[in-house]
Amino acid sequence: MWRGEPTYLLRNLILKDFRIRYRNMSLGVFWSLLNPLVMMGVFTFVFTKVMKTGDADFPVFVLCGLLPVNFFGMAWIGGTSSLVENVGLVKRVPMPREIVPVASVLSNCLHLAIQLALLLGMALLWGKGVHASWLWIVPLLSLFVVFVCGLALLFSALYVYIRDTRYVVESANLVLFWLVPVFYPFAWVPAEYAGIYELNPVAAVVLGLREIVLGATAPRGVLMWKLTVAALGTLAIGHFVFHRLRRGFYQHL
Amino acid sequence: MDIVRLHEVSKWFRHHTGPKLVRDHLLDLFRVTPPEHRFYALKNVSFTVRQGESVAIIGRNGAGKSTLLSVVAGLCEPDSGKVEASGTISALMEMGAGFHYDLTGGENVRLNASLLGLSRQKTEELFPAMVEFSGIADFINEPVRTYSSGMVMRLAFSVAAHVESDVMILDEVIAVGDQQFADRCLDRIRQLQRAGKTLLFVSHSADVVTHFCDRAIWLDHGEVVMDGASSSVLGSYSGQVTPEVES
Questions:
Q1: CB–CB of A251 and B103 under 8 A?
Q2: What residues form DSSP beta bridges with B6?
Q3: Coarse DSSP helix, strand, coil percentages of chain B, rounded to the nearest 5 percent
């Protein structure tokens, strides 16, 4: 039986992912800033100059949408392929395998933290000021990370058996980009579809982040409750499925 | 005291029968693979290993030796039968398993130590000894992709040999590198034996088997052919296997 130190192993796996990603890039972690800045610039140009629907707060507004969606896409896709990419660990090293997808998701968190710093910096530049409500970002994003860990457990295990999973995940991300209110306000969504939007945890995080950063208020209680239920529920399902499918990892990899 | 116990362990794999379409996944899901599509890697294997014993698994390529070690290590679950193991187990199934070529030697040592079950404190405590043992201290801050394959093996063995788990599983990685380093590996294994560790390993070297274990298990087509004193098992084994088949 493996009786190691899970937190130390998790730390080393996160560091590994992180080092591999940034060591061979001359710009290093600046890529984490560059990508959302460019996206923000493009969206701001299109929606304030070409289509003229955005207001003066639009750059901060769109960044509140880009940050969760970017993290979600990278962490979900990375987590899904983590078991297959670390086949050497899964097949040859006896250790708790659920650490692999979880480490993959958590290794994206530094990326998220850098983008959050960018968002808060932008909010200050746009004269939003520092608010006590900013503290709500911590539970909001923590629940989001738990939700993505649950998804990563679920989809990484499925991906071992069914290699089409990756394409499904990638397509779902593309669809999600349009169906999450990234560059349009939630208020524009027709009332008959609003209920469906509220079921989407990624949309909930975008809305929560906007309430905190642009509205300088705590996110609505019902939003946090729904997110908590979604995060813990997904983690439970992911964990359950992972344990059921774990038996076959050896012969399917 | 028995530290590893296998009871009627069988492990089968499905013969590869074309692309995996939805139908095949459904068949898998309900586990209705007909017996004629099964390939048995292990068939009704039973044995026990006492604490402190060193046991060699011998047999031809494809006899099921690595599958057996994987089952004991918990890397794959048997389809029938029971595996019981007490104490901590570490396995070195492949040289450099878990190594990443873009990380430096030192980073890989720490990652590997935590994978094999060492705590952070223990890793930092043993780190100098591991590097010293490997004999490549000068290159420890270089990325592993710049290493020769011999250097990777040295480093991997050094980490595994310092993880003092109760049961150590080694798959054909008992003595690696040049003669000098191989001797050092064998010395280290003797030390572990004296410390009361249980060793379970696959080796194709008759010398290693006779030197290190009193007991050998001969596996063929997933079944135990013979289990007993290493000298007599080796004797029967070499009588059965003609040199051309072995090579």
A1: no
A2: B47, B83
A3: 40, 25, 30
**Residue B219, beta-bridge partner list:** B224
A-contacting residues of B 17-56, CB under 8 Å?
A: 20, 25, 28
Residue A78 pLDDT more than 70? Answer: yes
| pLDDT of residue B226 exceeding 60 | yes
DSSP-H helix ranges across chain B: 22-29, 65-73, 105-115, 120-134, 149-162, 179-194, 206-212, 230-240, 243-246
Residue B93 to residue A19, Cβ atoms within 8 A:
no
ipTM of model? 0.87
A20 neighbourhood in chain B, CB within 8 Å? 100, 102-103
Q: Which amino acid is at B168?
A: M
Predicted TM-score (pTM) of the model is: 0.90
Using an 8 Å CB-CB cutoff, list chain B residues near A13.
111
Q: Which residues of B touch A243 (CB under 8 A)?
A: none
Q: What is the pLDDT of residue B31?
A: 62
Give mean pLDDT, residues B118-129. 95
The mean pLDDT value of chain A amounts to 91
State both tokens at B139. 């290159």
Q: Which residue of A has its CA nearest to B77?
A: A247
